[in-house]
Amino acid sequence: MTTVAIAPSYSPRTGRRVDGPAESTAEEVAAVLDAAARAFPLVSATPPAVRAGWLEAIAWALEANADRLAALADEETALGGPRLLGELAKCAASARFYGSVAAAGHWVGALVDTVPGPVPSVLRRANVALGPVAVFGASNFPFGFGVLGHDTCSAIAAGCSVVVKAHPAHPRLSAALAELAVQALAEAGAPDGTFGLVSGFDAGLALVDAPEVSALAFTGSQRAGLALAERAAGREAPIPVFAEMGTVNPVVVTPSAAAGRDAIATGFVGSFTLGQGQFCTKPGLLLVPEGSGLAEAVATILAGAAPGPLLTQAIADGYGAGVERLTGAGGTVLAAAGDAAAGDGAVDTGEGGTGKGGTGEGGTGKGVATKSSRAKGGDAGGADEGTAFTARPVALRVDLDELQPGSPFLQECFGPMALVAEYASLGAALAALARLQPSLAGAVMTAGPHDPDAGPLVAALARQVGRVVVDGWPTGVATSWGMHHGGPWPAASRADATSVGSAALLRFTRPVCFQDVPAAALPSFLCDDNPWSLPMSRTSTW
Amino acid sequence: MTTVAIAPSYSPRTGRRVDGPAESTAEEVAAVLDAAARAFPLVSATPPAVRAGWLEAIAWALEANADRLAALADEETALGGPRLLGELAKCAASARFYGSVAAAGHWVGALVDTVPGPVPSVLRRANVALGPVAVFGASNFPFGFGVLGHDTCSAIAAGCSVVVKAHPAHPRLSAALAELAVQALAEAGAPDGTFGLVSGFDAGLALVDAPEVSALAFTGSQRAGLALAERAAGREAPIPVFAEMGTVNPVVVTPSAAAGRDAIATGFVGSFTLGQGQFCTKPGLLLVPEGSGLAEAVATILAGAAPGPLLTQAIADGYGAGVERLTGAGGTVLAAAGDAAAGDGAVDTGEGGTGKGGTGEGGTGKGVATKSSRAKGGDAGGADEGTAFTARPVALRVDLDELQPGSPFLQECFGPMALVAEYASLGAALAALARLQPSLAGAVMTAGPHDPDAGPLVAALARQVGRVVVDGWPTGVATSWGMHHGGPWPAASRADATSVGSAALLRFTRPVCFQDVPAAALPSFLCDDNPWSLPMSRTSTW
After folding, report:
1. HSE (CB half, 13 Å, CA atoms) of A63?
2. At what angle do helices A426-435 and A454-462 cross, to 10 degrees?
């Protein structure tokens, strides 16, 4: 009898552990991969409008089970019912969106090009689906970037079968979503193997190495994303790895905008503590004019905020270590959540409210994350008690000159931490932006559409980021045609790829040119009768 | 006084060496890179229609100097005046083509997406140029994939400055083309640094490592391409590497098509010996129906062909070694060029006409390439005599079952060599195709538009190649909107990229989304007055 490994499922609020589903055995992983490989030709040959129906079935199943799924997600993530119900609704809407993008057909890029000559040649070019796609979702969006999130739905929309690696931060939710998806897809008529789930670390490695897998989509930390990309590069036949990792997203407040400092400070604190700061689009750095009072306004507002649980003990540990590293490197605590209430003992962090490093500012880098005292349960299963994965949001003040390549301030600290730096001149702010790691998004807070400093700042950010926002915070990512959610390395592994929006499908395709192929031998969708009703360009247009 | 390294220039016809231009010093490389970095923002901000004018100036300069350039190219490549004049004319046409693609503007993918909501959000997405591009051209197309070839012109079209590494197989031509380009671009008003050339092995390495360089485009061997990609992956900030390498391109003759065997055999021999087989699109493998007589027809026609010089001694050596490796692995010589005339001593290969391996077929794998006896000139310069880099075209017969992953038959043998394999059934041919390395192109020879075997073969090839041709040879690559010249790994480093055709520009761009950016702060080309006259999609269309 073989021992079956059980994925542990933790409550971030209590640290309590219960048994999750069994991890996949090597045989189970092989079977899922085989099913995905067998399904792929059927999925890719299915008209995109029919695949849109499959995605509609997934959306409907999500909605029909919203309360149960959100409650389960809340048990494993502590992100809260309202946020999770909202995320589930957006996830369902995204599934429908990718279906509509698939059916609209622009992603095929179908083009018929008649090349003149003594014997004219006809080139028909189209993007075709790559093959089975392996998806590694994120801990912080259990729906949006989870089992049935952007990567899975855009891959199915593009004609690929999908194998998802269950995220260890929400194993029970992953299993529930997979069960729903398998049933919804079957009822909608999708081939067996269109979607599969595997669970466990070894299963994840097996996906990276599997010859059946044609592309990897990953959302998560830089460390994990780079490790995945490195392993995939060592395959006998390398495959594209679309890793959306994230770095420090900068927001610059122009001198004229600083007058609206309370609204900006409120928005900033709300944005960087949203979901306990566990967003790849978190504004991790606020650049403010010297003497604007913005840093102080941020401190006041943050002091009134409350601590809360992080997603996992590892994230809580990493967050605490990150804040310590940054305070050790010269960052000074501007404020921490709960400072305003510290006197009445509402926040029990041991060192809260104690000044550090001679700055006289409230709070300290220590004690922002609580170490769990949970017992190690091994493989034996069962439930055990623990301690909440609680963390205090904190803002650090950093000198602009400290923002240098290689400094720890340029590394993402995942969780509710942000840096505030003052600039003496716009030139100094522009120079600092150029020294940052490229990121997913950046924003400029302006005094209105004619703020003279907006143009240079937008231009500087456009060289460094995938999305530039004016007078908004980067944390909102609309699932829409014009969205680009990606960025230059190391924010993402591929600067040309997006994991949100209509172009997300393109990651899972490659172009093929059919030269002088007669109708009887063409893929049917490229024939002149255009059975998929694709937008079909003719020479000289795309 | 420093010693200046001189690039040697060889005549493939005689092996004679003369001095080429001086190789770039480290300081010169740094200056070229610095100029490219300074030019980039100016180049990318220039309206594409103006850049089209720069490319027109390059085209005009090529045409105005056609005879001189073709003569120089012939000295260094021995590809022959008519071929080189034709290639130059196509190169000039390509420069204009990329200019017209730039001006048409579809490559920008401009899209304005209004996201509904309580406060509607406006997302403007556009592809922006990456930065300076390093180009490593090929030996076999000194114009088309040379200093001013597809990579250079598509990169300038996309708004990038370009630094080319001179190819050691044609250093004098490279220098002459660069001189022309610099002058033409200056006269057309392009910024200094829009184009630069460096020369020498160390200069090439410096380009791969340079922080100024944002992307690499390479055309050449698998070995060199993979080495380049590996080095680039080790950069502190990795950059995209677009390496077009090529493998073995298969052509399948259907049973019904085999009746036209003489025309097919003639076409095949013409295609695989074109330019002495030094094409990445060379049909390297012909799959023919058993007993069709096609192999014998190929032998007869090839026997009447003539040997000729290869581009470099290294290619000639590699070719000879490759043919020996394949005959050693069980390939039997079907015929070699010159066999028909071997009796009168027209071909002096020592062993020509001697049967080998018990097949009784004419020719042998040995002696297909002549070793040069040229002296090593070191850095001292001057001219020395040598031996021609001559090679005999050869066709090898191989058993279908030998075409297995890992076998040497699946590795490209650069030069005028092709394999012929017979298949017993269409199923066997399809199974063999699936075992090949993916390639740039593949073709099916049919009995006409209703040949029942064409469909399955086209579908099988579409899974393996970037371009499927029916009733044509893969060696012709039209510079046109619908062309795709690329393929799955290891034919190319990026399956989604093409080095020929309108989509070639996309390699050198990445998308940026501008969210709620007011007109005054937007890049001007994205404003509603549309100064670049870009095709500008609105929500729900691309």
Report:
1. 13
2. 10
Residue B3 · residue B68 · CB < 8 Å:
no
Tell me, what's the ipTM?
0.94
The residue whose two tokens read 């052509």 is B251
Q: How far apart are CA B82 and CA B69, in angstroms?
A: 12
* Eight-class DSSP state of B521: G
CB of B121 within 8 Å of any CB in chain A?
yes
From chain B, pick out residues whose CB is under 8 angstroms from the CB of A479: none
- For residue A124, give the H/E element and its range: strand A121-129
For residue range B42-81, what is the model confidence (pLDDT) as tens digits? 999 999 999 999 999 999 999 999 999 999 999 999 999 9
Task: Give chain B's residues under pLDDT 50.
Answer: 1, 343-366, 370-381, 541-542
3-state secondary structure of B278: coil
Cβ distance of A121 and B541 shorter than 8 Å: no
DSSP, residue by residue, A6-54: EEEEE-TTT--EEEEEEPPPHHHHHHHHHHHHHHHHHHHHS-HHHHHHH
pLDDT of residue A280 exceeding 80: yes
Distance from the Cα of B448 to chain A's closest Cα (Å) equals 9
Rounded to two decimals, the pTM is 0.93
Of B87, B244, B361, B412, the active-site residue reads: B244
H/E stretch holding B90 reads helix B81-104
Shortest distance, CA B541 to any CA of chain A (angstroms): 7
Taking only the tens place, the pLDDT of each residue in A205-261 is: 999 999 999 999 999 999 999 999 999 999 999 999 999 998 999 999 999 999 999
User: What pLDDT sits at residue B173?
Assistant: 98
Under a CB-based contact definition with an 8 Å cutoff, are residues A215 and A480 in contact? no
**Distance from A358 to chain B by nearest Cα, in Å?**
36
Q: Where does B14-132 show beta strands of DSSP type E? A: 17-22, 111-115, 121-129
* Segment A152-195, tens digit of pLDDT: 999 999 999 999 999 999 999 999 999 999 999 999 999 999 99
Among B455, B469, B520, select the one facing A454 at the smallest CB separation: B520
A157 CB contacts (<8 Å, ≥6 apart)? Answer: A48, A51, A52, A55, A98, A99, A101, A102, A107, A505
Cβ(B326)–Cβ(B396) below 8 Å: yes
C-beta pairs of A378-382 under 8 Å, 24+ apart in sequence: A379/A3, A379/A5, A379/A6, A381/A6, A381/A19, A382/A19
